[in-house]
Task: inverse folding
């Protein structure tokens, strides 16, 4: 998810628009990589570290995205995205490294994680739209001087 989300956000921050074939290849590679990481017995030991590294990289990119939102005058979206990014990283770290005491079935953790993922997905949608609107308005507001 962090790789695909970063590529999706790059559409508004860097005008990144891959071709359909490249898009399909990226999704196929991400799916294959996810299957390997999740199903491979040889990846059991490094898996938690891999998850945290991937989410940390995504959090770094979200920091850049938050700065872009601030520059566009979307302070509330930037704040809401920052809160989501912090809690997303906390979810990634908590699951493998700091299990919740007494939560043997992971019910408490999964409830927290699902709320966090839902909030973040919705917030990222609105932040993306806000940045897209701001960039569209700002690029149309410039009148070339002759």
Result:
């Amino acid at each position: 998810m962090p790789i695909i989300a970063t590529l999706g956000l790059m559409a508004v921050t860097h005008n990144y628009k891959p071709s359909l074939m490249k898009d399909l290849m990226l999704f196929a590679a991400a799916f294959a990589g996810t299957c390997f990481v999740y199903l491979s017995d040889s990846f059991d030991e490094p898996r938690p570290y891999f998850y945290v590294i991937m989410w940390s990289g995504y959090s770094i990119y979200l920091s850049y995205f938050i700065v872009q939102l601030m520059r566009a005058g979307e302070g509330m979206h930037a704040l809401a995205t920052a809160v989501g990014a912090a809690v997303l990283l906390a979810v990634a770290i908590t699951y493998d490294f700091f299990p919740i005491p007494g939560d043997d079935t992971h019910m408490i953790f999964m409830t927290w994680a699902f709320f966090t993922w839902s909030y973040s997905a919705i917030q990222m949608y609105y932040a993306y739209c806000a940045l897209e609107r701001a960039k569209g308005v700002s690029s149309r507001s410039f009148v070339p001087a002759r």
About this structure: Confidence is low (pLDDT under 50) at residues 139-146. The first helix runs from residue 2 to 13. The CA atoms of residues 115 and 121 lie 10 Å apart.
